[in-house]
Each structure stands twice: as structure tokens, then as C-alpha cells.
Amino acid sequence: MTAAKIVYASATGNTEGIAEFLEEQFKALDVDVELVEADDADEDTFEEADICVVATYTDGDGEIPFDLEDFFEELPEQELEGKVFGVVGSGDSELYPDYFCQAAIDFEEAFGKTGATKGADLVKIENAYDDEDEVVLKAFVKAMVEATA
């Protein structure tokens, strides 16, 4: 059975909601999935996963959330060949137009150094996800699963 891990950081609950929605969608496609809070993520988190997902918000002026900093710094050093990755970001383009989902962009770049295959395009969500975002998130999950086949 295909295994997925979703590492997420959430300050307001928006990204946690997104991660939980992703979890439901993976389960609907018969993927064994585990949510991992940022504080619990380490360099071995994706070791047993076929699908590696990071869902994050962006802190302050385009910064990685504090509880994901160590994980982010260690990610490019991981050898994730044969695995599929994807990144989802939530943000507020009105408050932070210059840094909208910057942490997600940075995570996607870091994943590119691991040897993993990009399974789906980066998804940027304005604050909490809505019905339109659900369509995009379902397509994200489907693409990730198809990329492992």
C-alpha cells in the first residue's frame, strides 16, 4: 500500500484544516496517510513514505514558521530518490502581498535538492480553504498518487 506523510505547521488553524482535508483525500484513494505536526517532524519523517507533503503558512516577512525551521534546514540533505513530493501553502495576500506563500515556495525549492520527484504543482491557498480550493486540493492528491504508480 502506498504511504503518505503530511508535515504541517499551523498558527491559525488554516493550514491544519488543509492538512486534514488532504489526509481525507489520500484515504479516499486507499493511501495509508499520517499527519505529522511540525514540532514532531525530523530528518527521518519521510523515510517510510512514498508520498511526502509539506503544508505550511508563511511567517512574518516571508519566513519559514519557527517550528519548521530545523526540518526545513535538514530537508535538502535528505536522500528522497524514488519518492514523490508536493507542497501546499496558505497565506494572506492582502496583508503580505510580497511574501504570499513564500515558505511553501522555499519548501518546494528545498525538496528539489533531495532527489524526490515533484508529483504536483505547488498549491497556494488564501487563508482557509474553500469549495474552489477543495477542487484544486483533490487534483493535487490525485496527481501525487498517480505519480507513484
TrEMBL record:
PANTHER family (UniProt xref): FLAVODOXIN 1 (PTHR42809:SF1), FLAVODOXIN 2 (PTHR42809)
Keyword Transport listed: yes
Cofactor needs: FMN
Sequence ranges assigned to domain Flavodoxin-like in this UniProt record: 4-145
Organism placement in taxonomy: Bacteria, Bacillati, Bacillota, Bacilli, Lactobacillales
InterPro entries tied to this protein: Flavodoxin, Flavodoxin/NO_synth, Flavodoxin_CS, Flavoprotein-like_sf
Protein name, per record: Flavodoxin
SUPFAM superfamilies, alphabetized: Flavoproteins
Role played: Low-potential electron donor to a number of redox enzymes.
Organism: Enterococcus diestrammenae
Source superkingdom: Bacteria
Family the UniProt entry places it in: Belongs to the flavodoxin family.
Keywords: Electron transport, Flavoprotein, FMN, Transport
